[in-house]
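Title: Prediction job returns without error message
Component: structure pipeline
Severity: low
Priority: P3
Assignee: unassigned

Description:
Job completed but the reporter wants confirmation the result is attached to the right record. Sequence as submitted:
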Amino acid sequence: MPLYKILANVLAQHIHSGDWAVGSNLPSEAILCKNFKSSRHTLRHALQTLESDGLVLRRQGAPTQVISRQKVRRFTQSFNSPIDILSYPRNTYRENIVEEFIELDKPLSEMLGGAVGSSWYHIGGIRKQRDTEQVIAWTDIYILPQFASLTSEPEHTQVMVFEQIEKKYGTRIDRAEVDVYAVGAPANIAKKLQLKSYDPCLVIVRRYFDDQDKLFEITFTYHPENKYTYQMEFKSGAGN
């Protein structure tokens, strides 16, 4: 084990034992180096480790402060593909109400993040549960115009649009941005969802970028209250 890790473990044990209380300052670097027969370089590396573990806070020109007796538990979330976080259950489908070519005006440009005057293809539809026909959400989908023909595909309403773009055109997601916020349903959306105007909705905005960092799809999905639950599972990192 490297010397700095050995020293970090020793210092962490002193903190865990309460030798240096939470809220107190560690001794100066000079004193620590003397007490633990360490070089300044090794000590600083050890203190960086303690800081990464969430035990101490280091600030330039100030003493190192103890902020916790226990290491921070780190959690990770693993996904095999974007489908794991960007899809809906397979027992749902979308009923397209709107299919049209558009050019972005200033309000749409600000909302979508595309250039004013740029061309897009707009798909607006209601997502329903297959067996009950219950309305789950309203979705506005904006894709580049060269992808418009996918709406004629037999499985178009059953499969996520980004999956269809990848399969038919070879454009793959390199990264995706997801925004989530609550809003009162605008009058036009409320009507489509059989709600009253400004009834609470959860809005999920998804933006998809290719390997050239080009935006090729944006979706706005409005979920009525109590109609949608998104679950995530986090696993504690090994050794933390």
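Comment from assignee: result matches the submitted record. Residues 81 and 173 are 10 Å apart (CA to CA).
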